[in-house]
Amino acid sequence: MTAKITILPDNISIRIKPNTPVKPALEKAGIAINYPCGGRGRCGKCRIQFGVSAPKPAPAEQTLLSARDIKKGYRLACCAQIERAATIIIPPEVRQAPEGRVLSTLGKQVEVDPLVRKVFLALQPASIQCQLSDSDLVHTALRAKGISLTDWTSSALQTLPAVLRQKNHSITATLAGTRCIAVEPGDTTKRLFGCAVDIGTTTVAAQLLDLNTGKELAATALLNPQSEHGFDVISRIQYAGEDPSHLKELQKKIVTCINRCIKALCQHARVKPEEIFHLVTAGNTTMTHLLLGVTPEFIGVSPYVPAFRDGHEFKPAEIGIRLHPEAIGYTLPNIGGFVGGDTVADMLVAAMAEGDALRCVIDIGTNGEVVIGNRQRLLATSAAAGPAFEGAQISHGMQAGPGAIDGWTCHPEVRFTTIGDAPAVGICGSGLVDIVAELLSAEVIDPSGRLQTAPHATSRVRSHGLARRIKRSSRGLQVLVASKTEGAKRNIYFTQNDVRQLQLAKGAIATAIELLLNEYGATSADIQTLYLAGAFGNYIRKDHAQRIALIPKLPLDRIQVIGDAALEGAKFVLLNTHYRETAERIARQTEFVELAGRPDFQDTFAANMSFP
Amino acid sequence: MTAKITILPDNISIRIKPNTPVKPALEKAGIAINYPCGGRGRCGKCRIQFGVSAPKPAPAEQTLLSARDIKKGYRLACCAQIERAATIIIPPEVRQAPEGRVLSTLGKQVEVDPLVRKVFLALQPASIQCQLSDSDLVHTALRAKGISLTDWTSSALQTLPAVLRQKNHSITATLAGTRCIAVEPGDTTKRLFGCAVDIGTTTVAAQLLDLNTGKELAATALLNPQSEHGFDVISRIQYAGEDPSHLKELQKKIVTCINRCIKALCQHARVKPEEIFHLVTAGNTTMTHLLLGVTPEFIGVSPYVPAFRDGHEFKPAEIGIRLHPEAIGYTLPNIGGFVGGDTVADMLVAAMAEGDALRCVIDIGTNGEVVIGNRQRLLATSAAAGPAFEGAQISHGMQAGPGAIDGWTCHPEVRFTTIGDAPAVGICGSGLVDIVAELLSAEVIDPSGRLQTAPHATSRVRSHGLARRIKRSSRGLQVLVASKTEGAKRNIYFTQNDVRQLQLAKGAIATAIELLLNEYGATSADIQTLYLAGAFGNYIRKDHAQRIALIPKLPLDRIQVIGDAALEGAKFVLLNTHYRETAERIARQTEFVELAGRPDFQDTFAANMSFP
Questions:
Q1: Does domain B193-331 correspond to CATH entry 3.50.40.10?
Q2: A-chain residues within 8 Å CB-CB of B310?
């Protein structure tokens, strides 16, 4: 007795014995998927879907999958058994990337084909009969591999004679496009690394990648030390414009920070900085200007123009970044003064310029950027959301970090979670959204954003036992969201002013979305997929983001969280030079929409300040 | 009464009054020619040829033109009058270059179209309605002129915002190909300069050129300070190979020398070094290696290979050459270890790769290089001629300079000329050739190269009154070529050893020519034009060079002197980027023939040591 199973979308059918586990069945069918935890039923990542005949869920599946997903037929490939004839759908994101490819957060395959590559050459030494110059030996051997070299860096030429004769004419040439940038004795092809950096206004995040396999070897993040001169880009722009030495100082600060990131990455992965040959950075327009030592001051005054927009290739060594001295640096192109390379990187990850479906990317960081469109037309704008979602300007706000309240509920009673399960010390972005959403549902906050005093509290408030948590202080009304007795380090309050800050921030984002949709001639219902980018997006509850009207009411399965997509987009460009062209193209193609100049801006903003 | 004159090869006919001077007649016909001395009958450069009806030569013509030329109908356009109907042939080398072109020594028109150019742009500032970035303003304005820019140097981007706003958005962009390397406020298009350098083993010669007009603004020459470490390339190669610090030292010496040349050129022409945006150098392979800091040591040991052969683009600032910090440097490509970019430059001037006529270039400097061929096939070799033709290793030898005997005759009596008409202090290359040629004709030197003692002197020697000049000293036999009583600073002798040195040198050159001809399957009679390059070639008497069998017996009008063609070839590349491609192509196309390895080398060399 065998049962037929069909695997989709590959449409492969095989016959198996009933009660065969999914894992060997897929292997038999030649379908490779990822088991990040080694198939031990711990990570819940190997989600597959049974079209019909879903087996009874195992305990691990009940823990790691939502009831809704289980109902839809989702199971874990490492746990499930195929009881009888079945159809199994393999989502793209669980598939193992074929050799030479990596998978993105969204399951997209990215071919590893970087700008910089290494080629090992066992050369035939020159002779009196064949007096080829050292560089001609290299040219000839490369030509035999179908590679034609056009030029050399001076330093590669300088090292060539000695390198060639060190290991019996066996060398490894490092090529950037058609230029030879370095030569090393022997075979060092396995040692080729690249670094992707997301230069955020607040946080600098970096990854070290193996440019042969695309594998991520290490990741790190540091605070952007420029924060000393203001938390937002406007303060940095002003500081840079005050004195030429300030521009130098800001450049030095970000360079030092990147060097620290590189050092940490290298130590962790046992890589030498000189083995890193390519650096790709994504940052907002101001951050990119500061990195390159170009004044951003005219971004800050009307007509708000940057010095440059295009992606820029540079020599990291020239600005003091310590990698291989001939490493190639590249900053992603900007769209406008306030929509930068980080947004372009997001757009790469969200494949915004592919297909006809209307997509929307919202990147909420220190600033907020919104893009909507498809391959026909792309519109972008920035929303002056301020740093509320990063915890700034919130009484007990803090950045996402140990002890930050990242989840909060008051139904049926007040409960909260903190990052790292540490004692609560403050509230981060996702916690804020939860608090406001829950307090709205509990009617402690009214649609205009006003906190209700206990005497005015509705029956709902009383039923939640919230009334006693509402207190009046010198700062006005406030809600005790976590107390010492509940395991917090201190009593943590949420104030009337905090609601107002959040209203300003979410109103700015919502306004940007609405006005871009107007400009495009679409409504929120037309959005096929909405991507939430930024560290904040990783932790936010989608339904709560909708409850506070930060994002439009869409079916939840049309909302995808793509995390630090700026870093991932930089990684795309680092791993595959084709994405560099795509980035340049979409940056040129995207229309920047200036909201402040529009007659409908004030009204829309005012309307978006309130809650539904 | 008018007379008809026809101008060839233009085939223009006009009618003039008899006895009209040539100059206004040519102007009437619309033919522009150069009068380097301003038409004052002093330089003898405005040579034209009467087909028939040549007028009686004026006194200036009799001084400045040879009797033979006068007989052939050559006259000076600034002196001659047209007596009656005539045909006038205008040689290419006297024609005035049309706008945007310069004329080479050989009368070739070189279009001024350099790699680096300046473009003035009066930009429309950005506005809220049209938020173009600073660099996009430049891109857009250039695109309107049909120029598409692909990238920027970081420093150009860094200066752009301030430059743009300094003179009301009027800027000058300096472009190297499709890359913007600098921006300056206002219109500086008139200030665009380039520098061509011939890096000789002994002498470094440099020219400053206006890259808008191609005009030579200044020229200078300095001794190569590397000479401290040996007069020939072999000594430099050895010194460089002894210790890495020696390579650095030699590089620093040549860089300092080039900087001194640039300083002198700039002072003379009132140009700032930062206004020089392009530098092109021609040098032999070793000189080029040393300039770029690449060890030449393997050129010196079997199998005698250089580190690189191709032309190399570099940043002069990186090696310490003081021009504009973003200026582009380019070293001409080499053919082999001992045939370098200077020879390739000669080949550009001699148009070796054009046409089917067999041509030969002989460049006699500290080393000797010979090239023969045509567009089908090109062969090159080096002849270890040694520095005898530069006066080295000759008892009273000296470089061409004030007081050097550059012409010598003993028929009917001893007479000599010196450079600058200064009292004689020594003998330079062309003087040596004259002395040997004359002493051969006078039978003081026999065909084997032996000096004849006075008792053995033939009647011819006696008739020349030379017998009393032949003396025996501790150095062996010697000839007094100039005495104090004849106006020399000291008694100047020519020794038996000097004849031997000259025999070795001329034998090496003649052998190279003969063996290349053999390899090509041609004889010397097949050579359509033989070009003599190098400072030495400027002063040599062609018939004397043939008398000593330095060069083959060809009709004298097939021999052309092209002076410092290495410098002129570098100038070609500087003025017109198309010549860079040509240089790369001919360097790759030219076969290097290693003479030392050939079985027929020793015999041919021995045979070429003697005199005809």
A1: no
A2: 135, 151-152
Its CATH architecture, for the domain B3-96, is Roll (3.10)
Q: Which residues of A touch B131 (CB under 8 A)?
A: 303-305, 336-337, 592, 594
CATH 3.10.20.880 describes domain B116-185: yes
Question: Does B162 contact A at CB distance below 8 Å?
Answer: yes
- How confident is the model over A360-369, as a mean pLDDT? 88
Which uninterrupted H or E stretch holds B378? strand B378-383
Edge-first strand order for the sheet with B529-533 is B559-563, B529-533, B359-364, B368-373, B378-383, B591-592
Asked if B293 and A158 come within 8 Å (Cβ–Cβ), the reply is yes
The CA distance from A387 to the nearest CA of chain B, in Å, is 26
CATH superfamily of this structure's domain A351-387+502-609: ATPase, nucleotide binding domain (3.30.420.40)
Q: What is the DSSP letter of A558?
A: G
Q: Which residues of B touch A305 (CB under 8 A)?
A: 126, 131-134
Q: Looking at the complex, report in whole angstroms how far the Cα of residue A331 sits from the nearest Cα belonging to chain B.
A: 12
Q: What tokens does B227 get?
A: 């000479």
Element (DSSP H or E) covering residue B511: helix B496-520
pLDDT at B596 over 80: no
B459: contact with A, CB 8 A cutoff: no
What residue in B sits closest to A162 (Cα-Cα)? B295
Lowest average pLDDT, out of A112-126, A240-254, B547-561, goes to B547-561
Greater confidence (B39 vs A381) lies with: A381
Is this model's pTM higher than 0.90 or not? no
> Tokens for A203?
């946080």
B520 pLDDT more than 90: yes
- Is B157's CB within 8 Å of A127's CB? no
Model confidence at A460, pLDDT cuts 50, 70, 90, reads low
Report ipTM for this prediction: 0.86
Subunit contact B294:A597, Cβ cutoff 8 A: no
Q: Is the pLDDT of residue A147 over 90?
A: yes
The torsion of the CA quartet B272, B274, B277, B279, rounded to 10 degrees, works out to 70
List the 123-152 stretch of A: residues with Cβ below 8 A of B. Answer: 125-128, 131-136, 151-152
For the stretch A61-84, pLDDT in tens is 988 888 888 998 999 999 999 988
Question: Which of helix, strand or coil describes residue A333?
Answer: coil
CA dist., res. B534 & res. A127, Å (int): 31
**CATH code given to domain B351-387+505-609:** 3.30.420.40
